[in-house]
Amino acid sequence: MTPRPRHPRTPPRVLALALLGLGQLTCSGVSPTPRLDEVLPASALRDRPTRLRLHGEGFAPLIKIDSMSGSRIVDARFQVHLGELALTEVERISDTELWATCPPGAPLGAADLVVTDPRGRTARLPGGVTVLDGDTVAPRVVFESPAPGPVPAGASVTVRLFARDPSPGLVTDLTLDADAGAPRSAQVVVEPALPEVVRDLDFRMPTDLPEGTRVLLTARARDDAPQPNVGEATLELTVGPPLPGPQIFSIVPGRGPIAGGQAVVVTGTGFTADTVIDLGGSALLSPVLEGPTRLRARTPPHATGDVDVTARDPLGTMVVAGGYHYGQPPLIVGLEPVFGVETGGDTVIVTGYGLDQATAVHFGVPVGSALTLVDTQTVRVTTPPGLGAVDVVLDGAAGETDRVTRGFTYLPRVGLEQVRPPMGQAGRTVNLKGGGFTVGMKVFFGGVPATGLVVVDATTARLTVPPGAGPVDVVVSNAVSTATLASGFRYN
Q1: C-alpha to C-alpha distance for 177 and 440, rounded to whole angstroms
Q2: Please, what is the Cα angle at 211 between 210 and 212, to 5 degrees?
Q3: CA gap 474, 249 in Å, rounded
Q4: Is the pTM of this model over 0.85?
């Protein structure tokens, strides 16, 4: 019997060296097949990108070994398709979650969602996403508090608003308007935008209206559609009898040196000769009562920090928590003006203490603006370009800083091009077209303020025409600019 030839076995070391020449090796450990269970939201909009959140299992990356260096290479390149459309910005969050963006222009209707992992394996969710033809549904907004009814004159109430935008829309901001003698408004910007929000806004019942006067609060929620949809709700309050005891509205300025001696003006209601106002437990010095709504005094000394402002008399006590700030020089006490144009270039006068020790003033940017020293309590500075409300920070020569949070606000210059329609009667709703529109701007028809103003976006606003007659100029203004459209509206 002829023996069979034996083939020499390749030594393990030689085999390893041969494999090294292959470049990369794939780790073939057990990896579950991907499974797609749900996607949130289950709808997307054709007119804008929609971020989708995919949940399932087996979203594991592919691990490779670089044979030359021995380093691990992680391949987490997943692909997601909606029908035949490739989704963008695919991001693996974990083995159970992926994110992807449905781009604008996706075909309308429901389509299967398909995930392909780096190994080429797929998972399918039949009819997983429905593409809708634009967002035309306004957010729903409701008043959670307070209840309708009387509110004491001068009292502050917390208005809690709840807003929800149907999927896949997002709420971007809430506005509260009060038709209380003179129009008053407040806004909360929702950052980041959310599908459902709860926010608190403060409202103070005016003291200059007769008891029993109707005050209508209007809440509006705006969404993130290219042409934003606005939801609206109203709450009717009435002016009730004033609260017993003193009520504090403001103390100006709201900051001063630890040594005390800062002249302040306190405003409110119910001030009498028996009223005592203190900061952090120490009474104001040399108080001068100028009437039931105003008192002048000087601050007592106190350690650094925020302190409560308390007003009390035999009828009651009111506390404003953290209402006054004590600081070390160099210290900012005031800014004038507190608004400026977005392009910068405005001159701002900064008042305070120890300002001869200041080296620069920052308006929301790391690079400080050079300052001109007027005296130890005053400097002059020119604003750089900026956007929105920014912190104002003062640098001292020894490295110390003082910060006024959101102390300066940049606003765009307003422009007014059209009123649509350009004629009608009082009470009619019209649209304004222009530029630089922001919440808080004012609109006048022949000098009479418009009501129900809703800023849709930077170029569009909607409002109710006030009473008037004949052709009138329409004026739009904010704290930094004014635009006039001559004979912009004609009353029928």
Answers
A1: 10
A2: 110
A3: 33
A4: no
Which of 72, 105, 132 corresponds to the end of one domain?
A: 132
Coil vs helix vs strand at 309: strand
How deeply is 345 buried, as exposed, middle or buried, from its count of CB atoms within 10 A (0-12, 13-18, 19+)? exposed
Per-residue exposure over 190-224, b if at least 16 CB sit within 10 Å of its own CB, e if not: beebebebebebebbbbbebeeebebebbbbbbbb
In whole angstroms, give the CA distance from residue 359 to residue 340: 22
Range of the domain at 33: 23-132
* Paired strand residues for 161: 143, 199
Kind of pairing between the strands at 316-327 and 255-257 = parallel
**359 and 459, same domain (yes or no):** no
Per-residue pLDDT of the chain (492 residues; tens, 9 = 90+): 455 555 444 444 333 333 334 444 555 456 789 999 999 888 888 888 888 999 999 999 998 887 787 788 889 999 999 999 999 999 999 999 999 999 999 999 999 999 999 999 999 999 999 998 877 888 999 998 888 989 888 888 889 999 998 867 788 888 887 876 555 666 677 777 788 899 888 888 887 788 888 888 888 888 888 778 889 999 999 998 888 889 898 999 999 999 999 999 999 988 999 999 999 999 999 999 999 999 999 999 999 999 999 999 998 899 999 999 998 889 999 999 999 999 999 999 999 999 998 999 999 888 778 889 999 899 999 999 998 889 999 999 888 889 999 899 999 999 999 999 999 999 888 999 999 998 789 999 999 999 878 887 889 898 889 999 999 999 999 999 999 999 999 998
CATH number at residue 372: 2.60.40.10
* Domain annotation covers residue 18: no
| One-letter amino acid of 306 | D
The count of structural domains within the chain is: 5
Residues 323 and 357 in one domain: no
Identify the bridge partners of residue 133 per DSSP, sorted by sequence position: none
